[in-house]
Structure prediction request, 424 residues.
Amino acid sequence: MDIQPIAAKDRNLGSVDYFLLWAGVAISLAEIWAGGFLAPMGLGMGIWAILLGHLIGNTLMGLGGMIGSTHGIPSMVSIRPAFGLRGADIAAVLNIIQLIGWAAIMLIIGGQAGAMLGAQAGGLLADSRFWVVTIGMGTLLWALCTGRPLWKVLQNTSVVALLFIVVLMTWVSMRELGQSALPPKGSGIPFMIGLDLVIAMPISWLPLVADYSRFSRRTGPAFWSTWWGYFIVSSWMYVIGLSATLVTGDTDPAMLLLTMMGKIGLAVPALILVIFSTITSDFPDIYSATCSMLNISRRLKARTLMWIAGLLSIALALVFPPEQYENFLLFIGAMFIPLFGVVLTDYFILRKQRIDLREIYRVGGAYWYWNGFNVAAVAAWAVGFGVFELIAVMKYPVGGSLPGMAAAGGLYWILTRVQARKTP
Prediction:
């Protein structure tokens, strides 16, 4: 594991690997839970928001991955041409915080689900802390093996098995809940706000997608396999959560569906779903947090940093309830939407998909700018973040993701063009 470019001869992931990798990421209790948030929109508008939101979000995520697959570099390194070497370090620090935090939240959700399914047996199996540690250690070991031949077999086999269990869960939900949906309660939510809730999920993977696409043999298949793998399964999870909430009014559709599976004798498949869906959707957080640490400093070995990230996520999950830091994590995560508005504008529009790999690691080189910072990129990032937060605070019914990203990218393009005209 390193942040140096991966040579073409060392890239070993193909179309099937990427489809199953991102399908496994999408199989998550958190995605079912997020789908329930769209219930006030009703079934028809909710499904439209799910499909359109994933269409937009997946495309942006895939474009971020193209930088990695084209040049063999991880996500935080791909930020350096736009922000400078030290500017990318700021993004890396924020990425470490949000990745370890979200890994902890996923462990909390998995721990609660495991304890609920193990309540009848009692003892350790009914203790959420036991499941947090068990699933957390499994996630850490999974991350430590990332990219190895054995990991590929385990990852692909696990995701295929999880897809079968998700089909089973879908069947259970249709059988137990029926097909009659409750009318939306209250005044509903604006379509653009619901769309923003969906877009936020695939865009949340932008700061780490290139960490995996850099192992691809070819850029095109990696893009489309990533796109379809996440689009199909994540949309599926959202629809399950939306439907379950509409029918029952339950605010936690994931736990509801697991409870129903347990009651009809499917507790073991439900528990397998809890454990392995958490691992396959959580290990990218640990692996990519390590990549971000290496982007800042390589004084410690990668495996040591990964152990630190994994154990820290377990400790956070054991100590802090999610409501204590979830808003802060959302605040940190929101910073990456305008950030990648700058990065994608820089790479695809201004640089025409060209990066000098010899300069991307060199202090004082072409991507050093002013003391390691590209002031234009940082300024555009700040303005985009301000637009995002202003929309959220003022509760404008337009959502903040697309305006924040467009504002950051547009301003960066203007500032760069003006600077180019002034420079001989």
